[in-house]
Amino acid sequence: MVQISWLRAAVLVLCILPALVDARIRHYKFDVVATNVTKLCSTKPLVTVNGQFPGPTLYAREGDTVLVRVINHVKYNVTVHWHGIRQLRTGWNDGPAYITQCPIPPKQSFVYNFTLTGQRGTLLWHAHILWLRASVHGAIVILPKLGVPYPFPKPDKEEVVILGEWWKSDVEAVVDQSTKLGLPPNISDSHTINGHTGPLASCPSLQDGYRLQVESGKTYLLRIINAALNEELFVKVAGHNLTIVEVDAIYTKPFKTDTILIAPGQTTNALLTADKNPGTYLITVSPFMDIPIPVDNRTTTATVHYRNSSLTTTALTTIKPPLQNDTSIATSFLDSIRSLNSKQYPALVPQTVDHSLFFTIGVGVNPCPSCINGSHIVGAINNVSFVMPTVALLQAHYYNISGVYTTDFPGAPLSSYNYSGPGPKNLQTMNGTRLYRLPYNSTVQIVLQDTGVISPESHPIHLHGFNFFAVGKGLGNYNPASDPAKFNLVDPIERNTIGVPTGGWLAIRFRADNPGVWFMHCHFEVHTTWGLKMAFIVENGNGSDESILPPPKDLPKC
Ligand SMILES: *[C@@H]1O[C@H](CO)[C@@H](O)[C@H](O)[C@H]1NC(C)=O
Ligand SMILES: *[C@@H]1O[C@H](CO)[C@@H](O)[C@H](O)[C@H]1NC(C)=O
Ligand SMILES: *[C@@H]1O[C@H](CO)[C@@H](O)[C@H](O)[C@H]1NC(C)=O
Ligand SMILES: *[C@@H]1O[C@H](CO)[C@@H](O)[C@H](O)[C@H]1NC(C)=O
Ligand SMILES: *[C@@H]1O[C@H](CO)[C@@H](O)[C@H](O)[C@H]1NC(C)=O
Ligand SMILES: *[C@@H]1O[C@H](CO)[C@@H](O)[C@H](O)[C@H]1NC(C)=O
Ligand SMILES: *[C@@H]1O[C@H](CO)[C@@H](O)[C@H](O)[C@H]1NC(C)=O
Ligand SMILES: *[C@@H]1O[C@H](CO)[C@@H](O)[C@H](O)[C@H]1NC(C)=O
Ligand SMILES: *[C@@H]1O[C@H](CO)[C@@H](O)[C@H](O)[C@H]1NC(C)=O
Ligand SMILES: *[C@@H]1O[C@H](CO)[C@@H](O)[C@H](O)[C@H]1NC(C)=O
Ligand SMILES: *[C@@H]1O[C@H](CO)[C@@H](O)[C@H](O)[C@H]1NC(C)=O
Ligand SMILES: *[C@@H]1O[C@H](CO)[C@@H](O)[C@H](O)[C@H]1NC(C)=O
Ligand SMILES: [Cu+2]
């Protein structure tokens, strides 16, 4: 008798426990290894996590703590960035090498430890050193808290769809060659969809692309991630519209589209309903580039296949990808995205601005005696090409190590010119490890102005440690007198990465409520390498929970 009631009590406790303690600790082990990826026709090993390309999906729920032990088995220094995770007070775990941490040397390990506070949706993790993120990347899926539904009809099934870029050569050899010669890096040899180049690549052994199996009448949530290095991508599915419900782990007002545009570092959740005639439908992934510079212009394909329908190629329903330079398709997609801004998920747009910054973003040309032309292209923000330090900036800030950085990053260009025009005669830039200091909880507006130096170009800018609201944009030069009146301060999209329009400007706002050192850079790896990057220092606040936490004990040193 006694034993049975004890058992009953235990069963009861076990049933109630998960509901009470719904925030969990999720453990992951990431072995960074060199891998021969058999689905790619190459003998060059890729650097991967756990031998997988793309890497493992990190699943967790809002409120969970994630512990990832990263063990470096390759010859390169390694770090991993949890792209879009806010890292409230835990900037040590953000991952950009020499910004928040020294890299993990070969044969050593580090445990990333962070809590998923106030975020749910799709994000991505990727290496944040050298060009290793080409193959060291994967999805982060943050489910809502237990019992909290999505603000859209529950899909029957979910699928992670990761887009990438792949080189037949070792990608580190590609960037090394480019740096040495002072020439743009070789473009990739294929785009990839979940690690498949698709049957259209010029590689005879590649027969099969990625296939999404669907059942008639069911709805699928596609968690689409652009993990490519240097290319914004269009995604289309033949015969089907997609309903966008979330970007960068922020719910959107649902809208229908036949084409998605996604920049490197961005994520897009789309519902696909299998409500067409059973068959096989082509998915196309192709680049968006609206200026004449070389990109990997191959269209990579995958298929949506209705179960039990014929799989012969004659039954394939095809589709034309957009023209590479179709700015109007790109713009109409981007202009459709609005924050859901519901009672449960409000858009907390800063209505006033404490720090109003104006940043020109683009390229310049500096002398390079060892380069082929005696000069090389550099990237710059407000004419400053960022020089990477050899001590991590967050350490230097936390321990007051002097001589690592200065805090005189200009809040506006030092000399003005017709930014969206061809630019000044002197294309040289300054260089320096210059940071911009922000008081805790101040509100910040940054107008990102593309420059026409050499050529205008759309730059996907990524801010670490925060989401920002994209309150306004336009073509040509920003006009501080007339443009702010057109800002959307009600339901603009909130995200962590956004393209500044080619030859135009974009205004973003955020609240600096996360103390630490936070990187901001172009998410085209080539432009980051060239120096299109800077960092903010956000000071500690006065409250007990407004300071950066002490560093983890196993943080690598340099
Ligand atoms: C990868 O393939 C190459 C060539 O076939 C082989 O020499 C090498 O040992 C393989 N590496 C791994 C990690 O399997
Ligand atoms: C993870 O970090 C938290 C502080 O944010 C700390 O309390 C906890 O002990 C850490 N866990 C491990 C396993 O290091
Ligand atoms: C880059 O492309 C050039 C021209 O096709 C080729 O000669 C060179 O070997 C490539 N570099 C690498 C590192 O693959
Ligand atoms: C190098 O110089 C040549 C000839 O002046 C020019 O055509 C080319 O665009 C230059 N390349 C770069 C990367 O500056
Ligand atoms: C997609 O949506 C557009 C606009 O609502 C509509 O014109 C088109 O017919 C739809 N296409 C499909 C395949 O449902
Ligand atoms: C694709 O790019 C290659 C190399 O840059 C170029 O030769 C080719 O004409 C381009 N194809 C199209 C359809 O634009
Ligand atoms: C598909 O085929 C399987 C067996 O081949 C069958 O059990 C199933 O009912 C079929 N489904 C549909 C939707 O026709
Ligand atoms: C876009 O590219 C197409 C084909 O390459 C070309 O005919 C057209 O003129 C281009 N459009 C613009 C606006 O540059
Ligand atoms: C950028 O800085 C360089 C080096 O100081 C200077 O020569 C150049 O005129 C500056 N350009 C602009 C647009 O301020
Ligand atoms: C920065 O600029 C100075 C002067 O132009 C130059 O001597 C130095 O090598 C540059 N440093 C870097 C890291 O580019
Ligand atoms: C940050 O500022 C806002 C608006 O002024 C204020 O409501 C909020 O309490 C502040 N938060 C902290 C932690 O100081
Ligand atoms: C790895 O990083 C350390 C510390 O910054 C540096 O001293 C070392 O040269 C790097 N090693 C490699 C292989 O790049
Ligand atoms: Cu860029």
TrEMBL record:
Residues 33-145, 159-308, 425-541 form the Plastocyanin-like domain. Binds 4 Cu cations per monomer. It catalyses: 4 hydroquinone + O2 = 4 benzosemiquinone + 2 H2O. GO terms for molecular function: copper ion binding; hydroquinone:oxygen oxidoreductase activity. Its EC number is 1.10.3.2. It is found in: Secreted, Extracellular space, Apoplast. Keywords: Apoplast, Copper, Lignin degradation, Metal-binding, Oxidoreductase, Repeat, Secreted, Signal. Its cofactor is Cu cation. Residues 1-23 form the signal peptide. The keyword Metal-binding applies. InterPro entries: Cu-oxidase-like_N, Cu-oxidase_2nd, Cu-oxidase_C, Cu-oxidase_fam, Cu_oxidase_CS, Cu_oxidase_Cu_BS, Cupredoxin, CuRO_1_LCC. Belongs to the multicopper oxidase family. This is Laccase. It comes from Carex littledalei. The lineage of its organism: Eukaryota, Viridiplantae, Streptophyta, Embryophyta, Tracheophyta.
